[in-house]
Design brief:
There is one protein chain. With 98 residues, this protein is of the alpha+beta class. It is built from two helices and six strands. The protein has a six-stranded antiparallel sheet, with helices on one face. The longest helix has 15 residues, at 76-90.
Length: 98
């Protein structure tokens, strides 16, 4: 995986769940991701940023939890690779912890 990002995901049906060690600043994450991806964030209502990809939705939580909801389970590897690119934008030194 590029950028020194190592994220492993547990498969839970149509959802993949992972965790990075560091807490995430959702305000900064949203500003960064909304330029490149279709992202949703409402700090008054929720503690997550949702990024919409063609084959999945990726949710980032303040705690460092990452959830991927697959629209097409056959695209799991491609979606994980795209999620790793997003995590690399946050900080290339982030790594997963389960």
């Amino acid at each position: 995986m590029s950028g020194g990002v190592e994220v492993d995901y547990k498969v839970c049906g149509m959802m993949l769940k992972g965790r990075i060690k560091n807490r995430i600043n959702l305000d900064k994450l949203y500003q960064l991701l909304n330029e490149k991806y279709s992202a949703e964030y409402n700090p008054d209502i929720t503690n997550r940023v949702i990024v919409h990809l063609p084959d999945a939705s990726v949710l980032f939580f303040t705690s460092g939890t990452i959830q991927i909801y697959l629209k097409d389970p056959c695209k799991k590897e491609e979606t994980i690779n795209e999620a790793n690119k997003i995590i690399g934008l946050i900080n290339p030194d982030f790594s997963a912890e389960f």
